[in-house]
Amino acid sequence: xxxxxxxxxxxxxxxxxxxxxxxxxxxxxxxxxxxxxxxxxxxxxxxxxxxxxxxxxxxxxxxxxxxxxxxxxxxxxxxxxxxxxxxxxxxxxxxxxxxxxxxxxxxxxxxxxxxxxxxxxxxxxxxxxxxxxxxxxxxxxxxxxxxxxxxxxxxxxxxxxxxxx
Length: 165
Hints:
By secondary structure, the chain is α/β, with parallel strands linked by helices. It has five helices and eight strands; from the N terminus they run E-E-H-E-H-E-E-H-H-E-E-E-H. It has a single domain (3-162), classed as 3-Layer(aba) Sandwich (Rossmann fold). Helix content is 31%, strand content 30%. The chain is globular, with a radius of gyration of 15 Å.
């Protein structure tokens, strides 16, 4: 696992199951107010990663891509919420503003697919995950932390997945 700098790690997944497991590890650490941005082309593994993340977080609801309904909400037994936003079909930033990201973050954690489409609305502190399809079922995942909370999350990933830095 290359550590590109203190705020970035790269991981190569060889299967959807492995992509899901990486998501599960991060999901177990997600809390209200956290933002995970998932950038990648169609088929890059964003929904697969989110399935793992939601499972690790403890979602009682099945995960599907919210492409046509824009936002899915998943619940945990304790009432906690995880919002899953797909910005692919948003036509403008003003359309994205109407979704009120702040209220979602006040209520739970937020996963955003296609975050580049709503750029300036996303808080500067966040975890940015770029997923790329390499070949077959192989995916490259680059995690970039923006802010202390996300540096801590990255360090947790280093420790739990690779036994150190």
